[in-house]
Amino acid sequence: MIPLSWYLIFAAALFCIGLYTVLVRRNAIIILMGIELMLNAVNVNLVAFWRYVNPQLIAGQVFAVMVFAVAAAEVAVGLAIFISLYRRRNTVAADEVDLMKW
Amino acid sequence: MTALQILFIIVAAVTLGAAVMVANSRNLVHAALWLIVSFGGVAVVFALLNAAFLAVAQVVIYIGAIAILLIFAIMMTRHITGEKTARFTTNHILALLLAIVLFAGLVWMLLGWSGSAALAVPLDARADPVRQLGAALVAPDGYILAFELASVLLLGALIGALMIATERK
After folding, report:
1. Could you give the CA distance from residue A33 to residue A31 in angstroms, rounded to a whole number?
2. pLDDT at B82 over 60
3. Which residues are bridge partners to B53 per DSSP?
4. CB under 8 Å to B18, separation ≥6 — which residues?
5. How many CB atoms lie within 10 A of CB B83?
6. How far apart are CA B59 and CA A61, in angstroms?
7. Domains, chain A, ranges and CATH?
8. Quick one: how far is CA B16 from the chain centroid?
9. Contact A71, B70 (CB under 8 A)
């Protein structure tokens, strides 16, 4: 049997790699990939707690389904913004888009 | 060490390795393909946790929709994101440090928590989690409000993405 802590440590590692990707890359599309990795780590945590604490309550899986929906909405709008940005400014590098930076 | 534990360790290693490759690969299409490997690994982890519906949904939504959408976006913005431009921001040492400190803090906290050694509760043989999930999503005393809100959110995202990405004359 696999103890709960294995899943939680796996999710923590996946979340930290996603965070590192978001912080370190210049390309906005890769930053979006890092966000997806972080959302996946959160889902692993939700499902692991559902399975190990109370499998009769289905709430953990319902939350994971909601995270799926939010992730799909976020990636659709994000990529639309990047394509619009590419058309206007001819770049998708996050550090070159500083119009609103004081 | 049981077969299940060995399987988990292999899957976790592949998933985390693929995630590291996403963070480091120079070619954006390769990064997207490594991302697909990582999503597949998470789907296997869901299957190990007896969440059959989520394992299938992970493959359909993340690999089938999100990863393909990302590859389309990479293709459309490709020739300015080639191999000559810098991959990393200037503060990547700081970012690496932050990620390692966060991971170490989380692991330290987990090791101090008494519930972290818990083993899986045996599933009721008669209960069907997929059926339960479907019923909970549409039951009035369940999560129907959240379910409807999610569908409105998706509709809003659809219209918003069309509005933003359409080229105005």
Report:
1. 5
2. no
3. none
4. B34, B35, B37, B38, B41
5. 8
6. 16
7. 4-96 (1.10.287.3510)
8. 12
9. no
Sign of CA dihedral A85, A86, A88, A89: positive
Question: Which tokens belong to A46?
Answer: 């939700």
CA separation for the pair A84, A92 (Å, rounded): 10
| Whether B66 contacts chain A with CB within 8 A | yes
The tokens for B4 are: 């299940």
By the 8 A CB rule, do A18 and A37 touch?
Answer: yes
C-alpha count within 13 angstroms, C-beta hemisphere, residue B17: 6
Is this prediction's ipTM beyond 0.95? no
Which residues, other chains included, contact A9 with Cβ-Cβ below 8 Å and sequence gap of 6+?
Answer: B106, B107, B110
Residue labelled with tokens 């963070």: B23
Q: Which two tokens stand for residue B85?
A: 């431009």
Interface of B with A in 70-129 (CB under 8 A): 70, 72-74, 76-77, 80-81, 85-89, 91-92, 95-96, 98-100, 102-103, 106-107, 110-111, 115-121, 123-124, 127, 129
pLDDT digits (tens, 9 = 90+) for B45-77: 999 998 999 999 999 999 999 999 999 988 888
- Residue position matching structure tokens 């799926």: A68
Per the listing, tokens 């534990």 go with: B5
Output the CA–CA distances (angstroms, integers) from residue A86 to B76, B100, B164, in the order listed. Answer: 9, 33, 12
